[in-house]
Each structure stands twice: as C-alpha cells, then as structure tokens.
Amino acid sequence: ALAFWTLLVLVVKGGAEPVSAAKIPFYVGLSLLGIVLAALDRRCALESQLRFVALLGGILAALSVLYFYLSGPHAPDQRLIAIGLWDTAIMAAHAVGALAVLGVFLLRGAEVRPWLWPLLFAAAAGYLLFLGLSQTRGVWLAMIAVLLAVRPTRGSALLVLSLVLSVILLWLCVPELFLQRGLSYRPELLMGGLHLLEQNLWLGLGFNP
Question: 122, 62 in Cβ contact below 8 A?
C-alpha cells in the first residue's frame, strides 16, 4: 500500500528524476521480500542473521572512521561519512545508530561464545567512535532515550554511560565540534517545516528538491 501511495505522490507531484524515483518503492519491496525469505529459512534463525549484520555494521563503522581520517585532508567543516552507500553524514549516523540499537537488543540475553567477545568489543568501539565523531546530536539523544525507555538493563545502562562519557570526552578534547552548529536556525527550520506541512498536508512535496 505504501508503494502504491509513493507512486501516486510521484505521479501527482512529480520530481526532478521521476524514473529514478519510481524505482525506490520496488527497491524497498525487494528488501522487505528478502527479509521475509530470510525469516522463512529454517536453517538459520532471523535473529542470528540480524546479530551478524549488527556485528558487521560495527566493524564497518570502525573501518569508515579509519578510512575517513586516513584518506587525506578534509575541509574543517567536513563531517564523518560512512564508506559505501551511506556517504551522507546525517543518514549515515541514523543508520549506524539504528544498527547499534538493534545489536544491543538482539544480543541481550543471548549466549556469546568466548571467541566472539573481541569482535563484539571491536564492533562496539566502532559504533561509539562513528556516532561520536559524526557530531549528529539528534542521534545521540534518540539512542539514549531508546535505551532508557525500552526495559533498561545493566547492559543498556552501561552503554548509555559509555555514550555519555564519550560525548563528555569529545567536549573536553574537541569543544569546537559542539559549537559549529548551534540552535540559532532550529526554530526557523521547524516553523518552515510546519508551514510546508500545512501547505502540502496530504501528498507532501513529492520528490522535488
């Protein structure tokens, strides 16, 4: 239903590249179909597959940090991005944060073999480094809120403490990171977004930039 609604919005509102935009619902549908097929595979539980994805995401987050800072000099205001398709700062931080939260809840109560602990620590360090250096404060607040709101445990409390300590350490070592983007334009952006929502309540703006 959402795919048909997206295509309807594209037809009515249009877009800069309608053919490319029309592919998005099909890509999303294929991704969801892949998740359904993986869940139906009895050889490996879906939870185990998602745990592997969360572990791999943390390791790739660490590699993204290394690649970004070792690939050459960047502009002073250049923010950390991920390797691969997540090459935009805000979307990369949201995706990596979602994977980190997914990994926390999937690994809670799971039996972990001893040889996996170094990989888990490396993945956790990768998540903390990437999310801390991405400077996306909205993701920090969202992760803390989720980890505290959804049945807090000792592990989630330790993770929240690690996040808070990482932010404090960043603030002490590199305070200019927190001063680059203040709250000066946030109210204007919020009011502008509400105004656009009021003008385009049902069909939105489509795929127009």
Answer: yes
Report the Cα–Cα distance between both ends of the chain, in Å, rounded: 24
Cβ proximity of 63 and 82 under 8 Å: no
Tokens of 3: 């795919």
SS3 category, 15: strand
Instruction: For residue 113, give the 3-state DSSP assignment.
Output: coil
pLDDT of res. 119: 87
Q: What are phi and psi of 15, to 5 degrees?
A: -175, 165
The predicted-structure confidence for 53-80, as pLDDT tens digits, reads as follows 888 888 998 888 888 888 777 666 677 7
Burial (CB < 10 A; 0-12, 13-18, 19+), residue 54, is buried
Rounded alpha-carbon distances, angstroms, from residue 208 to 2, 14, 87, 103, 122 = 19, 7, 21, 35, 41
Kindly state the DSSP code that residue 208 receives in the 8-state scheme. Answer: -
- DSSP readout, 37-105? HHHH-TTS-HHHHHHHHHHHHHHHHHHHHHHHHHS----TTPPP--STT--SHHHHHHHHHHHHHHHHH
C-alpha pair distances (Å), 158 with each of 10, 118, 119, 120, 148: 45, 18, 18, 15, 11
Do 14 and 208 meet the contact criterion of CB atoms below 8 Å apart? Answer: yes
Distance of alpha carbon 60 from alpha carbon 86, whole angstroms = 11
Percent of the chain with pLDDT over 70: 77
Residue with tokens 């139906």: 40
